[in-house]
Amino acid sequence: MSFFTRSTGIVGIIAVAAASAEAMIVVPDAPPPGGKVVITSCAVAFALKSSGSSSTNAGMFNTQNRSEVTVTKVYELAGFDTTSFQRIADAMCGGAPATLTAAGYEVVTAGVSDHYAWKDMQERGKASPEERKIGDTEYRIYAPTGQKLVDMEVVGGMAAARLFWGETTLGSLFSAQPVNILYTVDFAAIEADNRRSRVADQNTARVAASVNLTVGARVISYDASEDNVRCNPLGASRQAREQPYCALRKNEVRQQGTYSTNDSTSRRYPEAVVSVVEQSLGVGGVAMGAANALALMSGGRRRQLERFTVTVDPAKYEEAAKAGAAGILTDAMRWINEPETRPQTGRRRR
C-alpha cells in the first residue's frame, strides 16, 4: 500500500470520526430571555354596575341655614348575556400562557395542578363566581372553569396567608416566578367631587362619567428564588415534613412586583359601547322630587339620582376583553421585570 493510499485511508477515518463526534454534540436550548414563570392564580372581574356620589356640605364653622345637594349617578350593564362571562374568563386566563411565551418567558405547566401546594390553594379558595363591590363598582369575579378563586385579595381572611404560602411554594419549588393575575373589564369610569376638608364649605356636587369598555389588570410577580424565600416544613407529621411550604423573607419583594391599572388609555374600546340611555325614575322619581322640595324649604338636603343603562355589543365586548388581556399582561410583566421601563408616575392603583 502506497503512502498516498495509507494517508487517504487515515484521513477518511478521521473524517468519519469527526462526523460521529459532531453528531454526538447536543447544543442545549438557550434559556428564555424572560426566565421561567408559573401562573399560580388567574381571575376576571366583570363590572355589572358603577356609581358615584357627591354632596355639598357646610364647613365646621358655617352657621347658615343651607340647602344641601347630593348627586348620584348609576351606570348598569345592559345588552349582554352574563352567562357568557365564564366563557370569556376561560379565554382570557387560558390565553395567558401563550402571551407570556410570546413575550419570552418559559411557562411551567407540567405537574403544577398535581402539586400539593396547588391542591391546597384550590381547597382553601372561594367558589366561583363571586360578587364583590370594589370601590364604587359591583363586580362578578370568575376563576377558570373547574377552579376556585384563589386570589388573596378576593378570598381575604385567614385563608389568604395559606394562599400566599402556596403561591410562593409553587414558585420556589418549580424555580419560577409566580404570576398572579386579576383582570378587570369595566364600562364606566366615574369621578366624583367629594369633600376634601372638614373645615371649609363644599359648594359643588359634581359627578362625571366616562363610558368606555376598559380592560385593566392587577398582576403580581416576583423572584421566588432561594435568596428571597425560606422554606420550612409544615406540621410535625412525616408527610408534612416531606411537603415543605415556603414564604418570602421580606413581603416587600411581593409588593414591589405589583402592577395595577384599570385606566390605561391603550386598553379602551369605545366601539364596544352601543348606547348610554338615561332611565326614567317613574313614580318613585316623582315622590323623591316632592321630598326634595320639602327638604329645600326646611334647609334640608335634596337628592338627585340619575340612572343609566350602558348597552354593549356582545361580540365586540368579548373581542375587546380578550385583546385587552393579552396586551396588558405583556405591559405588566415588562413593568415588573424591567424597572427602567416604568413611567415616571409609577404604578397606578385602584
Question: Could you give a short description of this structure?
Answer:
With 350 residues, the protein is an alpha+beta fold.
How would the blueprint of this fold be written?
Elements: H1 3-24, E1 35-55, E2 68-78, H2 85-94, H3 96-102, E3 105-107, H4 116-124, E4 130-134, E5 137-142, H5 152-155, H6 159-173, E6 177-192, E7 207-221, E8 229-232, H7 238-241, E9 245-248, H8 252-256, E10 258-261, E11 268-269, E12 273-279, H9 282-297, E13 301-312, H10 314-337
Parallel strand pairs: 1-3, 1-6, 2-13
Antiparallel strand pairs: 1-2, 1-5, 4-5, 6-7, 7-10, 7-11, 8-9, 12-13
Helix pairs in contact: 2-10, 4-6
Structure notes:
The chain has 350 residues and is of the alpha+beta class. It has one domain. Helix content is 33%, strand content 31%. It has ten helices and 13 strands. The protein has helices at 3-24, 85-94, 96-102, 116-124, 152-155, 159-173, 238-241, 252-256, 282-297, 314-337; strands at 35-55, 68-78, 105-107, 130-134, 137-142, 177-192, 207-221, 229-232, 245-248, 258-261, 268-269, 273-279, 301-312. Strands 1, 2, 3, 4, 5, 6, 7, 10, 11, 12 and 13 form an eleven-stranded mixed sheet that branches. A two-stranded antiparallel ribbon has the order 8-9. The N and C termini lie far apart (88 Å). Mean pLDDT is 80; it is low at 1-28, 282-298 and 345-350.
